[in-house]
């Protein structure tokens, strides 16, 4: 690809950084976009707007355009139940079930020493702070059924024993190795309804 102009190679490199997209798919997407100039303009404007406006909720660490996110500031949500998830896609997946009416806490990852993700790099301290300051009655741990998810769940369950709060996790309806964001709504809904106390 050395024959390509620098700006095209740079675009391909940037697309290649996205999860699940390799060099061939990156090149395919870039070449497709280059033949649709108006789409490039709209994509560029949308990305620029996102860059300028996106923030993280100071309470749950979900995406927000300013201050508290829409879930945290919603008075109709049960502020005494926190669902702990790894990332934004997990919030979206759980919200689609219409089974959960509490609030969230995003860890922004899972414990994975091989990738350098130790507990101090996640939003675990912030979760403990929330429990100490707020009147939380239940924490639902809703993490992927993977080695990293299990390690994080074990770590959190030990940490949460120091707090007078009910701790539960999603039922085992989600198969080992599955990601919450790709789990079908029926399975996820059932897992939420049948969660168990740790």
Task: Walk me through this protein's architecture.
- By secondary structure, the protein is α/β, with parallel strands linked by helices.
- The chain folds into two domains: 6-53, Helicase, Ruva Protein, domain 3 (Orthogonal Bundle), CATH 1.10.8; 66-197, Dna Topoisomerase Vi A Subunit, Chain: A, domain 2 (3-Layer(aba) Sandwich).
- The chain is 41% helix and 12% strand.
- The chain is built from seven helices and seven strands.
- The protein has helices at 6-16, 23-34, 37-53, 88-95, 124-133, 147-160, 185-193; strands at residues 55-56, 63-64, 81-85, 103-106, 138-141, 166-169, 196-197.
- The chain has a five-stranded mixed β-sheet. A two-stranded antiparallel ribbon has the order 1-2.
- The longest helix is centred in the first third of the chain and has 17 residues, at 37-53.
- It is elongated and about 65 Å long.
- It starts with 5 loop residues before the first helix and ends with a strand.
What characterizes the major β-sheet?
Answer: 5 strands, mixed
What is the CATH architecture assignment of the largest domain? 3-Layer(aba) Sandwich
Number of domains: 2
Please report the number of helical segments.
Answer: 7
Give the structural class: alpha/beta
CATH class of the largest domain: Alpha Beta
């Amino acid at each position: 690809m050395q024959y390509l102009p620098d700006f095209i190679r740079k675009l391909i490199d940037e697309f290649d950084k996205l999860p699940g997209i390799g060099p061939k798919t990156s090149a395919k997407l870039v070449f497709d976009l280059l033949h649709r100039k108006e789409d490039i303009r709209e994509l560029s404007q949308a990305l620029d707007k996102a860059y300028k406006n996106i923030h993280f909720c100071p309470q749950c660490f979900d995406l927000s355009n300013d201050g508290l996110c829409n879930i945290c500031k919603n008075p109709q949500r049960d502020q005494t139940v926190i669902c702990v998830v790894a990332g934004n896609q997990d919030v979206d997946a759980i919200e689609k079930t219409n089974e959960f009416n509490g609030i969230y806490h995003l860890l922004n990852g899972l414990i994975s020493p091989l990738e350098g993700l130790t507990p101090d790099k996640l939003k675990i301290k912030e979760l403990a702070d929330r429990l100490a300051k707020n009147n939380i009655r239940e924490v639902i741990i809703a993490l992927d059924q993977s080695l990293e998810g299990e390690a994080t769940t074990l770590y959190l369950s030990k940490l949460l024993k120091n707090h007078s709060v009910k701790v539960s996790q999603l039922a085992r309806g989600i198969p080992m190795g599955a990601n919450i964001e790709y789990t079908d709504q029926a399975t996820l809904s059932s897992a939420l309804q049948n969660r168990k106390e740790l």
